[in-house]
Amino acid sequence: MAHDHDHHPQHEPGHHPGHDHDHDIDWAAMALLLEEQAELLAPLYRQAMAWLAQEVTEPGLIADAGSGPGVLSCLFADAFPGARVVAVDGAGPLLERARERAARLGVGDRFTTLTGELPDVLGELDHPADLLWASQSLHHLGDQRAALAALAGHLAPGGTMAILEGGLPARFLPRDIGIGRPGLQARLRAAEEDSFTEMRASLPGSVAETEDWPALLTAAGLKHTGTRSFLLDLPAPVSDEARGYVVSSLSRMRDRFGETLDAGDRATLDRLLDPDDAASVHRRPDVFVLLAHTVHTAVRPAH
To answer: Span 99-105, mean pLDDT?
Structure first.
């Protein structure tokens, strides 16, 4: 089952690693969207992987838990040329795209996929992971504390878990955009926070949890070794790819919680999304992308 991570202010669209019972999902369109957005963020992910490479020397097996169509999985294969990479997800159609990508990039010989529900599916790994990566997948699991403990059980002794959760929400526009009431994006993000809280509360077995990731990693029996944030800074004028990301992000916000906005903000958002309007994000010169993602690392004790 796929969800946009956009219902959290800190997330791009990503993929829910859970139940694959949504038969009405257009997987090809979903995959394309996820791929385009992960590719846009590739510079940020490469920074994170370079940082991880200082801690994880020559991992034999890397598992990407909640991989979606495998853009990051393939970046891991590139960053760690001696490693086998397993892309793990609940959606078979996305993993098919991941295998095609790996073959196209010439890393298919050390790339495999595993289809099933997190965290249980990790029991099918043929070897404990030396590096277990979970990017914005944990917050789609009802009991995050229990899920982390389960994930930790699939780490090799001395292995590293790296989770990407939190950071700073993406900004696309100046505070005053010349139309409507200034501060629209801050109000959109507040609505998004509420939407994310509702999403978490509606998950099966949902447990409210303080989002102190180092403490949760420690509770899972791991030793917290680092936390660092990585910046994506795409100043105006942006590429067509970055502009497309802004359009799709704002479009999903309009669809998801536009009705919770006041009439003035709704009208402004509609103008921003109208390609025929000179003030729209399709056409305006001041569009940018600025965001940060935070990665937390922890090691499973060797003894």
So the answer is: 97
